[in-house]
Design goal:
The complex is a heterodimer of chains A (156) and B (349). Chain A has 156 residues and is of the alpha+beta class. Chain A has 2 domains: 3-45; 57-153, Rieske [2Fe-2S] iron-sulphur domain (Rieske Iron-sulfur Protein, 3-layer Sandwich), CATH 2.102.10.10. Chain A is built from 2 helices and 10 strands. Chain A has helices spanning 3-6, 12-45, and strands spanning 57-62, 70-76, 79-85, 91-95, 106-108, 113-116, 121-123, 129-131, 140-146, 149-153. Chain A has a 6-stranded antiparallel beta sheet with strand order 1-10-9-4-3-2, with no helix packed on it. In chain A, strands 5-6-7-8 form a 4-stranded antiparallel beta sheet, with no helix packed on it. Chain A is elongated and about 95 Å long. Chain B has helices spanning 2-7, 9-18, 32-50, 61-70, 75-102, 111-133, 138-153, 158-166, 173-205, 223-248, 274-282, 292-313, 315-318, 324-346; strands at 20-22, 220-222, 286-287, 290-291. A two-stranded antiparallel ribbon of chain B has the order 1-2. A two-stranded antiparallel ribbon of chain B has the order 3-4. In chain B, strand 3 and strand 4 form a beta hairpin. Chain B has 349 residues and is mainly α. The longest helix of chain B has 33 residues, at 173-205. Chain B has a domain at 14-252: Cytochrome Bc1 Complex, Chain C (Up-down Bundle). The chains are: A alpha+beta (156), B mainly alpha (349). Chain A binds chain B through residues 45-47, 50, 73-75, 78-80, 82, 96, 100-106, 116-120, 129, 132-135, and chain B through 142, 145-146, 149-150, 160, 163-164, 166-168, 170, 174, 259-267, 277, 280-281, 283-286, 291-293, 348-349.
Amino acid sequence: MRSWEVKVGSGVADDLSRRRLLDVLLSGGLVAFLGAVFYPVARYLTPPKVAEIATSTVVAAKVSEIKPNAGKIFRFGSKPGILVRLPSGEWRAFSAVCTHLQCTVQYRSDLEQIWCPCHNGHFDLSGKNVSGPPPAPLEPYDVNVKGDEVVVSRRA
Amino acid sequence: MWFDERLGISEAIAFLRHKTVPLGGHTVWYYFGGVSLFLFGIQVATGLLLLFYYKPGLDSSYESVQFIVTRVPFGWLMRSLHSWSANLMVFAVFVHMFSVYFLKAYRPPRELTWMSGMALLGLTLTFGFSGYLLPWNELAFFATKVGTDIAAVVPVIGPTMSRLLRGGDDVGGATLTRFFGFHVAMLPAAFSAVLLVHLLLIQRQGMSDTIGAREPSAKGMPFFPGFILRDAILWLGVLAVLLVLCTFSPWELGTKADPFASAPAGIRPEWYFTFVSQSLKYLPAEILGLEGEVVGICTFLAGAVFLLCVPFLDRRAARGQKSPLFTLIGVAIVAFMLTMVALAYLKPY
């Protein structure tokens, strides 16, 4: 025979169930109270999404500004982009945000590669990650030369 | 006498006279906790002084630190003291942690002292990380970009954590405001609370003896006045070293952060994070189908959890026996960290 069975009928069981009810109500109330405190705090700390003006085309540089086998960082909306003039004179443009941990890449004329100095990531001139830790290629952009202006646009 | 009746100063001194520090070949390691505490005091004092002139903001952070170091009388000294003592504090905290580890002082009943100490180490590194951004210079900008993106790599909670830290999708003005809030309000409050627990636990349990020695140690130095006077001499020594460093090698400000410039060649975080950043350079893009950095960061996290839980894992030390396996693991961790720090400075690529 278990101890609680002895107490049935003595009023103790009633006390127990009353105590249990109070326990549930109090702990439930406490959880609800903590939720009511921390939910608004957590939501408050999470920054709201700010609508970005979508930039799809930008004048990245003047043709005369960049010699063959050189590169330049330009502003593409709120992110940096990289414009490279290949030794052959051809133009290429990519997102300059390294796919590893978001450092800003640079053009290395000695290697003819795009390089991220933070963790030694290398990309070839088609944006492909060729060595080091970057897990993905750089996002490529389209380049058009209009007169003296080099225009970079996001691919559709 | 009037104060003594009301505050019980003589009781406190009697308690400190009664308290002893174990003597022996390892006594030197018992000073590093005190040194860390002293350097924390310097951080609080100089931090408060810097607050009189520092203005967080994209157009004011760099400029106000520049103003402090070039125009404010002794501003260069306050700023240098803050930066140098931060670095020395991280060093002292690491030495303190590893000396406690190798002396196995984490063993029962001091598990909570160890865990609160690990929390203080974590908070110290967070202090370093958040304070590093505040001058808004080029190195700090990229260090924060990388650091907050590393947070994003943590499975499940990572992306939310990264947005929460940055105050948006990118490192910018919102990040600066948040880091300022963390650095001067939230972290000091949290650090003080945990520090209080840590110190109370030490007072309650006394200092640990080495394994094999009888506890409490028959041979000990009274905490007051013996140990505290030696502590004071050492603190003065540390202060002298700090002043020499500040005078002959004032902390540099660097160039202002430009979110639209390439990261400079040779970029690296503060030395105490280089063991992470340098290891990440060696990881390939993919390991067993997972992204290399995810594997790397998860390994470091596992290492931190291991260190946090070591009092419960080291069963031999818990029984008062020597535990060479854990000594070996500790040596491996220290060797790995030192090698990575050395490589980061000598052969970064």
